[in-house]
Amino acid sequence: MKLLVFSDSHGNSARMLRAIAQDKPDMVVHLGDGGRDVSEIEKQFPEIPLKAVRGNCDISSNLPDNELFPAGKIRIFITHGHIYGVKWTRSPLIEEAGARGADIVMFGHTHIAHYSMSGGLHVLNPGSCGPSPSPSYAEVVIDEKGDVFCRVIRF
Fold first, then answer.
1. CA distances (Å), origin 19, targets 73, 125, 128, 152
2. Please, what is the Cα angle at 136 between 130 and 138, to 5 degrees?
3. Are strands 121-125 and 136-142 parallel, antiparallel or unpaired?
4. How far is 141 from 148, CA to CA, in rounded Å?
5. pLDDT at 145
6. How are strands ordered across the β-sheet holding 66-71?
7. DSSP alpha helices (H): ranges in the chain?
């Protein structure tokens, strides 16, 4: 299963749409600050499952603040990150993801791409695919055994 993960598009959907059209993922994840962009993804790729959360700039959005969902044999916890203070520390976010039984936690908000492991938890921020000096997104591949492979891709 291949997922493309985006965050902080802030109204700049063109890069995301090109990446989705080119890579043809099994699922798309948007981690907030791009509510209008999420609608564009849904409109152009209705056949691709989409998970999305609300960011701090998605003022009137009906999207959830966070979500836990299965993907293959693993559980993914997604949030924008602002309610966990990720600009200062990832500890509260990592604790919450662990308490929910997640295998991967994905967040945005900082506009800085990051991938690491914390214990057995994959911690991923795809960076900003919108206005950024170094725009990026992430690809997550989950194989049939439940092994996870993550990489950050620069536009």
1. 25, 17, 14, 13
2. 125
3. unpaired
4. 6
5. 95
6. 66-71, 74-79, 104-106, 121-125, 114-118
7. 14-23, 35-44, 91-99
53: exposed, middle or buried (Cβ count in 10 Å: 0-12, 13-18, 19+):
buried
Pairwise CA distance, residues 45 & 47, whole Å: 5
Residues 50-93: tens digit of each pLDDT: 999 999 999 889 999 999 999 999 999 999 999 999 999 999 99
104-119 pLDDT, tens per residue?
A: 999 999 999 999 999 9
- 139 DSSP β-pair partners: 4, 151
Contact 90, 110 (CB under 8 A): no
What kind of architecture, by CATH, is found in domain 2-154?
Answer: 4-Layer Sandwich (3.60)
Q: Where are the domains of the chain?
A: 2-154
How many other C-beta atoms can be found within 10 angstroms of the C-beta atom of residue 108? Answer: 31
Reported as a single tens digit per residue, the pLDDT across 2-35 is 999 999 999 999 999 999 999 999 999 999 999 8
Distance CA 39, CA 46 (A): 10
